[in-house]
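Problem 12. The chain below contains 248 residues. Write out its predicted structure in token notation.
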Amino acid sequence: ISFTEALQYFQSAELSESRGKVRVPGRRGGLAALLRCLRGPPQLRPQLRGEQELALAMAQCALDDSERVHMRILQTIYQQLTRSRLGCPRYGAHWEELGFQGRTGTNPLPGDSPRPIPKIQLNLPWRNSVLSPLPQPLHGLQTQLHCPPSDLLQHLNNFPFCIMSVNITRIVIQALREERLSRECNRRQQVIGVLNDLYAAAFLQLFRLWKCQHGTIADAGFFLKELELSTKKKPRQLLKSLEAYVSR
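Solution.
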């Protein structure tokens, strides 16, 4: 499945339950509005609020084994990462190849992570979880915006691709929720496009950190904390680094 087709599915889906969980930042008035104007990021333009709400609703959408589009997204990511033309069983140890940590989900990555590493069972990928880890890597893999999967999975030392993807997605979504990305979204007049590029930019920085510093699982928490600071404080700088990478 292409990212465009997957996005069209979410745009037309009901998502009422997921939308009910969305906490969109409200408009501020009085002193709060003045302080924000002087010191904080700008508010998202009203015409982009609907796209912001869709992105946040997608992040709350539960993965459903009975939903064909959800399974197609999962299968496509597996095929892109493993270079396989064949699909794979929904459950099984083969998911370890994509970077899950531990078969029972009881072994989170060590280190001072900005958020707890999700306890995801290796043989039950994203079970009882949200769908948010799926659409952004789908976009990145199909547009080749982040580093080649062959490098990530074969040449780096024990690189846990999927666990890192889950955490980067959460960092990017949190930055959107906190309106850290409003300036860039307003400038580009889009929200989901900014999220996709920022995910790719954060992954590129992670790739460079992991490679240059010979990263291991023990470094994952430190790297994620650094990525969270960059994503929230300097998103434009991250995006410029991605643009330079793509232009080369």
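Discussion. The CA atoms of residues 175 and 232 lie 6 Å apart. Students who got a different answer should revisit the alignment rule from Section 12.3.
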